[in-house]
């Protein structure tokens, strides 16, 4: 198979979808790999390293899309890429369709086969291609939140871990999944007073067992959220419904109950956000303020730590990409239910219910194409 790896062009996105090590794995199985020049620079991988691994370097993104049977990316195609996607071309990347109708329509119009990292699902309901970036984003949410609590950045002027004689910051985490767990670990390690909320009592029992003493668990409900927001300094949204839009757990009217300088970090922004006043921001312009509350809603948080993120992501994606290259997407998805669940759009039709429901658009069972 001919595999194309374009340079990411989303704002401050420095990750790359395939490392030189991955190129070796593809080429030794007889596949051809084309990398856009400088695609790996942001993650510390040079064109020479890719060439030595067996890849061919192309000068433009258009040439990569034009030659490839399978495009492997990190982030969803953005508007300049829409016209480059071809009929029957397999695109393997994060899409997060349910939060972005123009992207969904563009991929329908392209006729491409869109296989989304975020909906590849294992038999235990875990999301193996989302987990590594959720781990990074969860840890970064506390790192960034601690920074924006500083007064020059319009926060409350609180040191996350406090000092002897002065209480630490209070951190509230909505969701006890991978993002929430990693956020709680970081916040607790920095000495904050942490409360983590979830709807799943079994999950809360587990977290209560494994977390340190400065992490408290709480059942998630609108009443409890409203009670807690008035006293917490950093609030992290870490809620995910696979392939669907995240629910709004923090509503606009709640902002007036927060202390001025409270910081909101919405890690769920890729899926529409679990904070009603959330809108995607970039690393270049990461925050905005509503009702004296600082909103940090960067849609590609792991892009700020590309070396770590690229290695973590490609460790997870490469085995699936090899299956797709070796067998073709139809056979690979017939053989692997995990990959089958990753199919979102095929030849102009939506084949993932969460996406069709998000926009009230027609749904076609994926079996039609397999």
From TrEMBL:
Pfam families named in the record: AlaDh_PNT_C, AlaDh_PNT_N
Gene Ontology molecular function: any one: nucleotide binding
GO biological process: L-alanine catabolic process
A GO term from the CC aspect: plasma membrane
Active site: 96 (proton donor/acceptor), 270 (proton donor/acceptor)
Record-annotated Alanine dehydrogenase/pyridine nucleotide transhydrogenase NAD(H)-binding domain positions: 149-297
PROSITE patterns: ALADH_PNT_2 (PS00837)
Catalytic activity line of the entry: L-alanine + NAD(+) + H2O = pyruvate + NH4(+) + NADH + H(+)
Matches recorded under SUPFAM superfamilies: Formate/glycerate dehydrogenase catalytic domain-like (SSF52283), NAD(P)-binding Rossmann-fold domains (SSF51735)
Record: residues binding NAD(+): 134, 198, 203, 220, 239-240, 267-270, 298-301
Residues spanning the membrane: none
Keywords: NAD, Nucleotide-binding, Oxidoreductase
Record domain Alanine dehydrogenase/pyridine nucleotide transhydrogenase N-terminal: where: 4-137
List of residues binding substrate: 15, 75
Keyword Oxidoreductase carried by entry: yes
EC top class, as a word: oxidoreductase
EC code: 1.4.1.1
Transcription regulation listed as a keyword: no
NCBIfam families: alaDH (TIGR00518)
The family this protein is said to belong to: Belongs to the AlaDH/PNT family.
PANTHER family, alphabetized: ALANINE DEHYDROGENASE
Protein's name according to its UniProt entry: Alanine dehydrogenase
């Amino acid at each position: 198979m001919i595999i194309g790896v374009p340079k990411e062009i989303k704002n401050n996105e420095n990750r790359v979808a395939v490392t030189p090590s991955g190129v070796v794995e593809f080429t030794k199985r007889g596949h051809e790999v084309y990398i856009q020049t400088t695609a790996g620079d942001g993650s510390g991988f040079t064109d020479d390293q890719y060439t030595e691994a067996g890849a061919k370097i192309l000068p433009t993104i258009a040439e990569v899309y034009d030659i490839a049977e399978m495009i492997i990316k990190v982030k969803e195609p953005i508007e300049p890429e829409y016209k480059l996607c071809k009929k029957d071309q397999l695109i393997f990347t994060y899409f997060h369709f349910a939060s972005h109708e123009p992207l969904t329509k563009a991929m329908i119009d392209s006729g491409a086969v869109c296989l989304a990292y975020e909906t590849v699902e294992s038999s235990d309901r875990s999301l193996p291609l989302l987990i590594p970036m959720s781990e990074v984003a969860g840890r970064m949410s506390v790192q960034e939140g601690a920074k924006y609590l500083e007064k020059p950045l319009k926060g409350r002027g609180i040191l996350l871990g406090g000092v002897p004689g002065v209480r630490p910051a209070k951190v509230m985490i909505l969701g006890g999944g991978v993002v929430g767990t990693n956020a709680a670990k970081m916040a607790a390690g920095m000495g904050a007073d942490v409360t983590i909320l979830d709807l799943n009592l079994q999950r809360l029992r587990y977290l209560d067992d494994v977390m340190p003493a400065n992490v408290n668990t709480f059942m998630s409900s609108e009443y409890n959220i409203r009670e807690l927001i008035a006293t917490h300094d950093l609030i992290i949204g870490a809620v995910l419904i696979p392939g669907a839009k995240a629910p709004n757990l923090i509503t606009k009217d709640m902002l007036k109950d927060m202390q001025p300088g409270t910081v909101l970090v919405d890690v769920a922004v890729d899926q529409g956000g679990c904070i009603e006043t959330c809108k995607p921001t970039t690393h270049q312009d990461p925050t905005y303020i509503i009702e004296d509350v600082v909103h940090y809603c960067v849609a590609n948080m792991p892009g700020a730590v590309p070396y770590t993120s690229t290695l973590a992501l490609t460790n997870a994606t490469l085995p699936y990409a090899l299956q797709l290259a070796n067998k073709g997407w139809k056979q690979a998805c017939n053989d692997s239910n995990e990959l089958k669940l990753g199919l979102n759009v095929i030849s102009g039709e939506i084949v993932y219910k969460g996406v069709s429901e998000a926009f009230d658009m027609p749904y076609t069972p994926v079996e039609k194409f397999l």
